[in-house]
Amino acid sequence: FTFIFCILTLLILSGPLSADVVTPYIKGTSTAEFLLEGPYEGWWRYDINIEWAHNWGLSHLDLILKPGCALEDHLIVFDVPAGFSTSEAEPNNPQAMGWSGYFNRNGDPSLNIEIPVLKFNSPFFPPDAEPGKTGHGVFTFYSNIIPEKGTFANALVFKADSKPAEYGELEGDYPSCTIVPEPATLCLLGLGSLSIFIRKK
Fold first, then answer.
1. How much of the chain exceeds pLDDT 70, in percent?
2. pTM of the entire structure?
3. How many whole angstroms separate alpha carbon 150 and alpha carbon 176?
């Protein structure tokens, strides 16, 4: 009887826990739009849609950039807040929250990353919110870095307290680390192209 009682007790205790266990992942898709007006005219607006799942709440998300993006003339700025997400800290209890964004040229020491990252921290608001085990969000930044299209493995990573980091791919537009030329440079390039065209005529 004691043995059967112990087995039943283990089943009762493990049942709800096993139902809550998820396979960790992070993945995203992104688009970039060249801005023709506004405060960032001549730059690109990047919107990244990210989904995640983990068995613990997240502390932050990173977009890992190429080493060349660390140069001082490669500029990235964020709205305040820089992103919005919906996630479930508890089953059937979705939470909406805002995230702050940072451009760390030297990487992310918490993940032992030594190349540039965009780091999205939570929560920006509300102050008592916590990102849940599963969720999705849209994260935005503005940059003079020209995008390239493709599928970029291990470009996304998230941290969940002291647990191992989880990496995933980003599909779509990604900063190439080639910057938009200054207006004067664009003008000179245009004049150069025009002179070539006239000579050909």
1. 77
2. 0.79
3. 11
